[in-house]
Design goal:
By secondary structure, the chain is an all-alpha fold. Helices cover 72% and strands 0% of the residues.
């Protein structure tokens, strides 16, 4: 299959949907989404579409605060480097399985930056 770059909201939806199919079955991070947070997938997935669209294909209608959500989550289950590493691995695999190009590379780079900043701020919040 010839892969193309991330160029549309439909591509973002494919990426997010494929990613979360992996996440929910993952033994390291899946429980966070299914048991700890008990996400309403019908609400969460469109938010993730908007979030990634705002990053990769601006402008977007995303107006959330992911840091505060993750601060709250960290109080329920301490988020670790292992959790973020697994999240990144699954994200990178999903991007590479479905896309190729500059936006695909940007999706991986931006995820790595988000994870690093998020984990740092979460650790600072604990002090």
């Amino acid at each position: 299959m010839l892969k193309h770059d991330i160029i549309s909201e439909a591509d973002i939806q494919l990426l997010v949907d494929s990613f979360y199919k992996k996440v929910i079955h993952d033994p390291i991070i899946g429980f966070i989404f299914t048991d700890v947070v008990q996400l309403s997938w019908e609400k969460h997935i469109p938010i993730m579409y908007a979030f990634w669209t705002s990053i990769l294909l601006p402008p977007s209608n995303y107006h959330g605060n992911p840091m505060s959500k993750h601060f709250e989550l960290d109080k329920k289950v301490q988020l670790t480097q292992e959790h973020f590493d697994k999240w990144l691995l699954l994200w990178e695999q999903t991007v590479n399985e479905n896309f190729a190009g500059s936006k695909a590379a940007e999706a991986i780079t931006r995820a790595k930056n988000i994870a690093a900043i998020m984990l740092l701020k979460i650790k600072q919040q604990r002090v």
